[in-house]
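Why do we bother with holo predictions? Because pocket geometry can differ from the apo form. Keep that in mind while you read this record for flavin mononucleotide.
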Amino acid sequence: MADKMDMYYFSPTGGTKKVSSIFAAALGRDVVWHNLGSKQTISGKPQGELAVVAAPVFGGRIPSVVREKIKKLDGKGKKAVTIAVYGNRAYEDALLELNDILIESGFTVIASAAFVAQHSIVPEVGAGRPDFEDEKEIRAFAEAVQRSTAAENVHVPGNHPYKPEMNVAVTPISLPSCMACGVCEKVCPTAAIAQEDGKMVTDAEKCILCMACITACPQQARVLPPPLLQKTENMLAAFKTVRNKNEVFF
Ligand SMILES: Cc1cc2nc3c(=O)[nH]c(=O)nc-3n(C[C@H](O)[C@H](O)[C@H](O)COP(=O)(O)O)c2cc1C
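The structure, written out:
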């Protein structure tokens, strides 16, 4: 395989980027990074012979912003590797959805993996992951990809039709301590946030609840509405004490 690799990633709170960086370093190729969370247009032509797509799992699916952007890639004659990064609950149809889109775009998906990272809404779930043990497994996956001579699409778990997409009609809110500095607007991948009359206003139609604005706010003035946070914490309580596994597929 040639030495260049395109890494397409979406990482609103840094977990997916961390997994991608460990993987890329272990693969030892020149990496061209493509941030799918950026508002800039991404070229449809991968530069290398191998493309890697890494996405966080949202409600057992991949975020819509990832779906829309990777659909436009031209994979003809290229190999791909997919990585779903999930918050210690479950990845359900996310990996299958990623692979279906890339195969449809002409890629041969030679390997896939689901790795755990800290849950971006409830950080006590999967706390501190990817940790030392995870790093070893991510590196082992990269080394196996490097050695792979596969030329067929890999089979991954998941169901058709996919789980219905998460549909939460609420958005993060800005607290009175918000100084309308505009950082949230800048980092929002879907252009859901705008400044109106000195206040940050969020469009619920566009918001995908990715947590990028909450993580980036320098005043800690962006938060989830307390009832939503409480509901999510209750739903995930059982996952605070379990260690879910990483899985790889060749
Ligand atoms: C809206 C939303 C939905 C999520 N749904 C799931 C899920 O279905 N299963 C799961 O295990 N983790 C889920 N997570 C957790 C993320 O997949 C996990 O924290 C991931 O590492 C986030 O990636 P990032 O750190 O690159 O932003 C969800 C997070 C968000 C914000």
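The pocket of flavin mononucleotide is lined by residues 11-16, 56-60, 85-90, 117-121, 209-211 (CB under 6 Å).
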